[in-house]
Design brief:
Layout (H helix, E strand, L loop, with lengths): L7 H10 L5 H12 L13 H10 L7 E6 L5 E6 L5 E9 L2 E5 L3 E3 L8 H5 L1 E4 L2 H12 L11 E4 L9 H15 L6 E5 L3 H10 L4 E5 L5 H7 L8 H15 L3 E7 L7 H11 L4 E7 L18 H13 L3 E4 L13 H8 L12
Parallel strand pairs: 4-7, 7-8, 8-9, 9-10, 10-11, 11-12
Antiparallel strand pairs: 1-2, 2-3, 3-4, 5-6
Bound molecules: iron/sulfur cluster.
Length: 357
């Protein structure tokens, strides 16, 4: 069994079943999740005989990083290859006071959002909890001079996390309980899977729920997210309010601002009506064109600066808390699916601008 993805109590049980003391499981957990061990050989407080036995009966295997691209602003994009050959992306975003990691929850994605490189490629499979958490552990070792541990995690890479609920939930607990990332620093971003939002609310975790809204009315939202036709904006707002009631946590609405598509004053007023008067906030993500041979023809444009300012002002005047995402990783294809797509098309170095989740 691969020990990556097993929590402390599972490791204790495995060690017990091998006829060893349970505390060895705790030691191994510390080596994997706290000290960054990538092989049993590195676990120096465990005797050589037991290390050999572990290597013979079990494994500790990380996916290899098959491509890596570093932006001028320090953003690093990693392409990881799973044991079955599937490739997924992880983005590491260093800031002066924290290290955020954007993780993938699935190989590919079935949601087919019209502005997303991953959505264009279709769904491949769910990632295991170990494959998800490996992205955090491999991100830690990227900056060897500081060996900084990620402080914040966002599930905004490839895939719809709430369609891989069990593995995502287990990975969240691994991040919190084993690695030590505060629950409030973990954001699960969904395109709006109602049953998943309900299940997450029932867990009553203190993580942040972000819902990709992108349009304040059903017709436009269904056009941007063709798989959303069974879910209306009203359903999403209701589910979000239930989530707030169950957890006490404010909900974030992600809104990709597409020039001439969803950035009119009327759209801003509609959005403000949905969002005012309860604990939510809107995160505006100005669209940046996705270039590249495989990604042409998406047909969206960046919003004009004036339109964006007016859109934000309407929300703020209505009392809706609003932020605007700062572009990171502009030169490393840091939007989801871009690196994987580009790897199939051309050499690693690119000059593709950052788009959206
Ligand atoms: S934006 Fe997210 S949910 Fe939509 S297709 Fe891309 S990965 Fe899937």
């Amino acid at each position: 069994m691969n020990f990556l993805g097993q929590n402390t109590s599972e490791l204790e049980n495995i060690l017990r079943s091998m006829g060893e003391a349970a505390f060895r499981g705790r030691q191994i957990s510390e080596w994997i999740y706290k000290k960054g061990a990538t092989s049993f050989d590195q676990m120096t407080n465990i005797g050589a005989q037991l290390r050999q036995k572990l290597a013979a009966e079990h494994e500790l295997v990380f996916p290899p990083v098959v491509a890596r691209s570093v932006s001028g602003d320090g953003t690093t994009k990693l392409l990881l290859e799973m044991a079955d050959g599937e490739r997924i992306e992880t983005v590491r975003l260093p800031y002066p006071d924290r290290l955020s990691v954007c993780v993938s929850s699935q190989a590919g994605c079935a949601m087919a959002c019209q502005f997303c490189a991953t959505g264009l490629g279709g769904f491949r499979r769910n990632l295991s909890a170990g494959e998800i958490v490996s992205q955090i552990l491999l991100s830690r070792s990227q900056d060897e001079s500081r060996n900084q541990t990620p402080t914040h995690v966002v599930f905004m890479g490839m895939g719809e996390p709430l369609l891989n609920f069990g593995n995502v939930l287990k990975s969240v607990h691994l991040m919190h309980n084993e690695i030590g990332i505060p629950m409030r620093h973990i954001t699960v971003s969904t395109v709006g899977i109602l049953s998943g939002i309900e299940k997450l609310a029932a867990e009553k975790l203190q993580l942040t729920l972000a819902i990709s809204l992108h349009a304040p009315d059903d017709a436009l939202r269904h056009r941007l997210i063709p798989t959303s036709t069974k879910t209306g904006v009203a359903d999403l707002i209701k589910a979000a309010k239930n989530y707030v009631a169950a957890t006490g946590r404010r909900v974030t609405f992600e809104y990709v601002v597409l020039g001439g598509v969803n950035d009119t004053p009327e759209m801003a007023q509609k959005l403000a009506r949905w969002c005012k008067g309860w604990p939510c906030h809107v995160n505006l993500i100005p669209w940046n064109a996705v270039a590249g041979a495989s990604l042409e023809g998406m047909g969206f444009g960046a919003p004009k600066a004036d339109d964006l300012r007016r859109f934000r002002a309407i929300l703020e005047e209505a009392g809706v808390a609003t932020t605007q995402r700062v572009q990171r990783g502009a030169d490393v294809a840091a939007a989801c699916g871009q690196l994987r797509a580009l790897q199939q098309e051309r050499p690693f170095e690119t000059s593709i601008p950052l788009a959206v989740r």
